[in-house]
């Protein structure tokens, strides 16, 4: 048995999004404009239920821990899809059970990049089943959240005493086409939650989703008519 | 996404609060949180037949210990774990810092099993102490002897034996240093959802029919039904069905017509207790004896801090006094909702250890463990006891109110009253029942009781027409003023649902 301690040089993390490639040069536009379309432009069908990977919360964290010991930190992505009603942005959320909401998304495969990962996951979760393909335009990275331990809390930063977070979740803003069809697994309900419902409502939606109105305020959403 | 929501999702709904109430149960609600020292202790000490993952040492199914070393910890063939607490860490002392210090003591790597930092759940901040899990008793002894001489960021780690008393001490110390309350208990009843949320009708039920039948068959598109699935609620629902089916798709729901903030209160009260947002009256009284002993140098500025705070928040007395009220004051931090514009407070509130002492005060995060412990162990023991009982009373109070409101909201006013009366009796009969803060607790309970009764909580009309979602913020404020007067809402938007 190896009885030596791992060599520890630096005891702190080197960047707030440690595994992200550094990008000092590209100057992003000062503000960004995103087209959104009325909810009525989209049609929704159903498809077979998609079971959760884990049967229970403890199992879920057990698997996370087991995988962590083999492949390291889990990487996941969540997609923010926006429609509008009465010129108010609404975010598409999957409702599971009665009180649980989540953004569409999931775990990335090892080595999978975020964009192909989120595209794959969106196709799995909301993609149509009639052979046609959906168009998902990944616009922007709008946030990063970390899970410091194998338990529920996630924060939009890595707490100072943590050097080895257990999960990193990237939030990606997805621009929807003007019209489209989605197929929702039968065990989910899809809801369009207006920003005012989410705002300051961590009690119902959790800190991540309830922070989206704030996160999204930097975008200029163009409210297109149904035509 | 809160953990309770996840629990619900995965079919692990929270308990229903049935059966008779007793003090233990009420207290359990507090204890059954992230880390229960009792279970932790027993689990870790008890020999186990098979090799156990360190994760199992922590009682909560989800609060799993985090191995800091990615490689599997060395096996402990006997499956027996030995723990100790490492305290006096700074909030920015990292797991790697600690690991490095441990490695530097010469401890054999194979003796290290796991470690877990205690964290403030609200913001993830370290509480400045960690649980170290080792594979032998000798290793614990070795750490106890050697680690304190390996300073981390200039502070000597303290190694404390693994028992409840020590954890309580560490917890007490950290409470003084946290900039944010540690709201561990997430009450999902607090969750108030679906104001205006548009449900896109594709789910399993969504398909079945036209809008007119869907209201009848099972979960109508109404979201509020899911929020509080109580028997009475569904009763109310069925009554609404005819109305609903006529008005689809532009439905106005009555639940928003007459919001009753009590529901939200129930969820928030327990947090309130932990949050330390509160009554100033009790604080000043309690503070006087403690202050000189714990941190003499703070006494002089306290008036400056307290006075403005008190002036602004007289209405908060309704809430239970926070367990940490003293600690907030001691650590020179204002209560959570203290106004920002007051003198030195903003500075002291800053969460940075880099800040030089202000007015001779240590910065918030200089770990005062060393200076605190003598005080705790010495003549202040009775103070600690007092605090202990006070905390219990506060827990009893807030849990009872929460539970009473739960009961009342499903029509069990009698049960709710009994709960409150039991809590009043418990607090009155506690050793410090005469104390002003306890009297305030009792007053709050009695007030709630009156409120319940006068409100005719059992009558259906007030029970079901309740806005849960838009009233979060306002309820919180209003509750401090009065539990019973908050009836009318000038603004109670009606949700509009539409099926597609």
From TrEMBL, chain A:
Pfam families: NUDIX_2 (PF13869). Keywords: Cytoplasm, mRNA processing, Nucleus, RNA-binding. The keyword Nucleus applies. GO terms for cellular component: cytoplasm; mRNA cleavage factor complex. CDD domains: NUDIX_Cfim25_Nudt21 (cd18871). It comes from the Eukaryota. InterPro entries: Cleav_polyA_spec_factor_su5 (IPR016706). GO terms for molecular function: identical protein binding; mRNA 3'-UTR AU-rich region binding. Residues 1-10 have a biased composition (Basic and acidic residues). It is found in: Nucleus; Cytoplasm. GO terms for biological process: mRNA 3'-end processing; mRNA processing. Residues 1-27 are annotated as: Disordered. Component of the cleavage factor Im (CFIm) complex that functions as an activator of the pre-mRNA 3'-end cleavage and polyadenylation processing required for the maturation of pre-mRNA into functional mRNAs. CFIm contributes to the recruitment of multiprotein complexes on specific sequences on the pre-mRNA 3'-end, so called cleavage and polyadenylation signals (pA signals). Most pre-mRNAs contain multiple pA signals, resulting in alternative cleavage and polyadenylation (APA) producing mRNAs with variable 3'-end formation. Belongs to the Nudix hydrolase family. CPSF5 subfamily. Homodimer (via N- and C-terminus); binds RNA as homodimer. Component of the cleavage factor Im (CFIm) complex. This is Cleavage and polyadenylation specificity factor subunit 5. The lineage of its organism: Eukaryota, Metazoa, Ecdysozoa, Nematoda, Chromadorea. The gene is cfim-1.
From TrEMBL, chain B:
It comes from Caenorhabditis briggsae. Coiled coil: none annotated. Residues 462-500 have a biased composition (Basic residues). Residues 83-160 form the RRM domain. GO terms for biological process: mRNA processing. GO terms for molecular function: RNA binding. Gene3D superfamilies: 3.30.70.330. It comes from the Eukaryota. This is RRM domain-containing protein.
């Amino acid at each position: 048995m190896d009885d030596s301690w791992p060599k520890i040089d630096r005891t702190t993390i080197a960047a707030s999004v440690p595994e992200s490639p550094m990008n000092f040069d590209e100057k992003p536009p000062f503000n960004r404009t995103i087209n959104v379309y009325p909810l009525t432009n989209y049609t929704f069908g159903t498809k077979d239920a998609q079971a959760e990977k884990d049967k229970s919360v403890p199992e879920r964290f057990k698997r996370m821990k087991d995988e962590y010991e083999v492949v390291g930190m889990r990487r996941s992505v969540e997609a923010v899809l926006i429609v509008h009603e009465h010129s108010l942005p609404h975010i598409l959320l999957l409702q599971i059970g009665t009180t649980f909401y989540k953004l569409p998304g999931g775990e990335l495969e090892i080595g999978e990049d975020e964009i192909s990962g989120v595209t794959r996951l969106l196709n799995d979760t909301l993609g149509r089943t009639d052979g046609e393909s959906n168009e998902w335009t990944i616009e922007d990275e709008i946030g990063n959240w970390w899970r410091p331990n194998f338990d529920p809390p996630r924060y939009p930063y890595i707490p100072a005493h943590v050097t080895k977070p257990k999960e990193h979740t990237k939030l990606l803003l997805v621009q929807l086409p003007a019209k489209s069809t989605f197929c929702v697994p039968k065990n989910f309900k899809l809801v369009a939650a207006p920003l005012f419902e989410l705002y300051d409502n961590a009690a119902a939606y959790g800190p991540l989703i309830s922070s989206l109105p704030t996160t999204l305020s930097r975008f200029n959403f163009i409210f297109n008519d149904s035509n | 996404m809160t953990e309770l929501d996840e629990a619900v999702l995965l079919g692990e709904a929270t308990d229903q609060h049935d059966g008779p109430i007793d003090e233990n149960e009420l207290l359990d609600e507090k204890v059954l949180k992230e880390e229960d020292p009792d279970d932790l202790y027993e689990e870790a000490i008890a020999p186990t037949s098979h090799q156990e993952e360190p994760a199992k040492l922590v009682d909560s199914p989800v609060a799993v210990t985090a191995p800091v070393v990615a490689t599997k910890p060395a096996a402990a063939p006997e499956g027996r774990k030995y723990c100790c607490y490492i305290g006096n860490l700074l909030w920015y002392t990292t797991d790697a810092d600690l690991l490095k210090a441990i490695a530097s003591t010469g401890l054999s790597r194979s003796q290290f099993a796991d470690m877990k930092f205690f964290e403030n759940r609200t913001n993830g901040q370290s509480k400045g102490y960690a649980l170290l899990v080792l594979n032998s008793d000798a290793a614990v002894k070795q750490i106890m002897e050697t680690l304190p001489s390996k300073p981390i960021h200039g502070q000597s780690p303290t190694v404390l034996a693994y028992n409840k008393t020590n954890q309580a001490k560490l917890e007490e110390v950290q409470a003084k240093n946290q900039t944010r309350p540690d709201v561990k208990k997430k009450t999902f009843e607090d969750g108030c959802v679906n104001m205006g949320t548009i449900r896109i009708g594709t789910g399993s039920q969504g398909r079945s029919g036209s809008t007119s039948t869907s209201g009848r068959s099972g979960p109508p598109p109404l979201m509020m039904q899911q929020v509080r699935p109580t028997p009475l609620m569904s009763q109310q629902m069925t009554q609404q069905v005819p109305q609903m089916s006529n008005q689809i798709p532009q439905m106005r729901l009555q639940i928003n017509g007459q919001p009753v903030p009590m529901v939200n209160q129930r969820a928030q009260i327990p947090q309130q207790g932990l949050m330390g947002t509160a009554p100033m009256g009790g604080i000043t009284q309690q503070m006087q004896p403690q202050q000189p002993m714990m941190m003499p140098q703070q006494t002089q500025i306290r008036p400056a801090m307290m006075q403005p705070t008190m002036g602004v928040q007289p209405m908060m007395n309704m809430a239970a006094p926070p367990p940490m009220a003293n600690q907030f004051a001691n650590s020179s931090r204002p209560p959570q909702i203290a106004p920002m514009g007051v003198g030195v407070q903003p500075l002291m509130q800053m969460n940075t250890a880099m800040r030089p002492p202000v007015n001779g005060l240590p910065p918030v995060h200089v770990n005062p463990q060393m200076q605190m412990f003598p005080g705790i162990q010495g003549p202040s023991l009775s103070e600690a006891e007092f605090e202990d009982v006070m905390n219990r009373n506060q827990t009893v109070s807030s849990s009872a109110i929460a539970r009473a409101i739960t009961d009342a909201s499903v029509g069990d006013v009698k049960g709710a009253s009994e709960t409150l009366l039991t809590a009043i009796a418990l607090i009155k009969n506690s050793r410090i029942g005469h104390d002003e803060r306890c009297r305030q607790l009792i007053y709050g309970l009695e007030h709630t009781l009156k409120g319940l009764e006068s409100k005719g909580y059992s009558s259906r009309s007030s029970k079901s027409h309740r806005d849960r979602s838009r009233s979060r913020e306002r309820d919180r404020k209003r509750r401090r003023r009065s539990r019973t007067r908050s009836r009318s809402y000038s603004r109670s938007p009606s949700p509009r649902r539409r099926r597609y």
